[in-house]
Design goal:
two-stranded antiparallel ribbon; ten-stranded mixed sheet; 303 residues
Length: 303
């Protein structure tokens, strides 16, 4: 699966924005790609110009029996992260709907270098040289150029002491997957009022394609779509106002209240009547508490 010329070869140093994520530098924590050979990405990292990922990924084949311990660690993290909300992924869903048709990526730590806080969470599996610390699953869609983000979680959510967490692990896991797979457009889901919305809104301008989803097991779910733009990514770390967004999008009188289902249904009806497109402002989301109302934006009219 190794390409003749890889985009991370010859990179001298980490992007200054990622100095906060110094854990990426040593090589004891590296990105991984968990995908069957037939689904391997041609020319990884070619679409988005980025110098953040300085180490070659670890390649794993999910159809290999030898990689079962690696997969079991993924199940451990995902199950503990989503189990309390009754959204843990059944094994057959991971196999049938994720790892066989799609692409799984994240970061893994050399098992011999695992911090004590992580060892306390994950069961020991002898012979496993690398232990995954995060997972991001994307699945190609029938809509050309679009991928669906199915799952994102990290060991950070399981660590009690914040000082033991790896700074930016969740954001960087998704960023690596989108970058490596040359994703043009990403559609995904999360719940209104979820802290995940602060993360997902920084990969490209977030269009609300669904404001209420009774077909989902959690009806108060936002379905979003973003055209991937690395120009937005640094702002997740710097918290700078995105002036380009404000130049091209304007606030409406519509507000979403994460505590009020009616506001979600009202916006959903507007979407169904083709009154949009409607967008969220990542800077506003970053600066507000999870329970606060969010302004809905639309593209400015060009006269």
């Amino acid at each position: 699966m190794r390409q003749a010329t890889l985009p991370w070869e010859g990179v001298a140093k980490l992007n200054p924005i990622l100095q906060k994520a110094s854990w990426m530098e040593s090589g004891d924590i590296r990105p991984y790609v968990f995908v069957r050979p037939e689904n391997s990405i041609a020319n990884p990292g070619a679409r988005h110009q980025l110098d953040w990922f300085i180490h070659e990924p670890i390649y794993k084949n999910p159809l290999s029996l030898d990689e079962l311990p690696f997969a079991e660690h993924i199940y451990d993290i995902e199950g503990k992260a989503f189990g309390p909300s009754n959204m843990a992924m059944p094994r057959w869903v991971f196999y049938d709907c994720s790892v066989v048709p799609g692409f799984v990526a994240g970061f893994a730590c050399r098992t011999s270098k695992l911090p004590a806080a992580f060892r306390a969470i994950l069961p020991e599996r002898p012979g496993c040289e690398w232990t995954p610390l995060s997972l991001f699953i994307i699945i190609p869609s029938m809509h050309k150029g679009e991928w669906v983000a199915h799952n994102l979680c990290t060991i950070n959510s399981l660590v009690k002491d914040k000082s033991d967490q790896l700074y930016g692990l969740g954001f960087l896991s998704k960023a690596f997957g989108l970058w490596y797979a040359n994703v043009e457009q990403c559609t995904g889901f999360t719940q209104w009022g979820s802290p995940a919305l602060k993360l997902h809104s920084h990969f490209g301008y977030l269009e609300v394609v669904g404001a209420y989803a009774p077909v989902h097991s959690h009806a108060e779910t936002i379905t979003y779509r973003a055209n991937i733009s690395t120009a937005c990514w640094e702002k997740f770390f710097t918290r700078e106002e995105d002036m380009a967004f404000l130049e091209n999008y304007e606030p409406t009188e519509i507000m979403i209240d994460p505590r009020e289902q009616k506001s979600m249904i009202d916006l959903q009806r507007k979407i169904e009547r083709h009154e949009g497109p409607f967008y969220l402002n990542a800077s506003e989301i970053a600066g507000k508490d999870l329970s606060e109302k969010l302004t809905i934006y639309r593209p400015k009219k060009i006269f």
